[in-house]
Amino acid sequence: MKKFLGYFLSPFATLAFFLVLVIFHPLQWLSLKLGGYRAHKRCVDILNFFLLHTFYILGNRVIFINKQNLPVGRPIIFIANHQSLFDIPPMIYYLRRYHAKFISKIELTKGIPSISFNLKHGGGANIDRKDPRQSITELVKFGTRMKENNWGAMIFPEGTRSQDGRVKPFQSAGVATLLKKCPNALLVPVAITDSWKMIRYGLYPLNTFTPMKWEVLEPIEPGATPVEELVKSAEEKIRAIVDPQHL
Description:
By secondary structure, the protein is of the alpha/beta class. It is built from six helices and seven strands.
């Protein structure tokens, strides 16, 4: 039944999502030119507020839980599992006070209204997976910006989206590079549950009447612990929420 309803509701949700991107593309340009970083960030926050609310056109629910008393004014590396493109708007909006930037594929910096502009000018890292040297250089620069501005980072250590919700093994290289440049960053796991179900049939039809949950988990102080162990700890915390049968 939910798939059947998706055939009727998906065009409205997709159109609304695309219209929001198109409308906010010139608004981002204007805010950056006239108001600099702060105005641009505010514009991006509002953009993602509207993007996540297009999910409701499908009857889907966004449940964002953050019971952690996270510090403001300290770099934070948010470590999350990755299930779909739709993971991102709720994270940007609900974690907006931490100035968290994404580590993204360089291919996304071209051709997508609003999204490409933000990736180019928002302060994150855009990496070329085919060029390890470029990737490391971008991450080093990003780690420096995090340290200088007390920004956050959002990273998906699985490397690719999970199509069935099962958590894939986490890779530690990206976190290790950021911690070298920003050693005082706090590690914060974020468990994303059931966002994959929104696209279980692809982009058409989108699934309907599905509750999706984002939960911020207990922070991890890096200290002198090896990075591999830190990332493994984050993975286990997330897996205990999202995929407990595969612990």
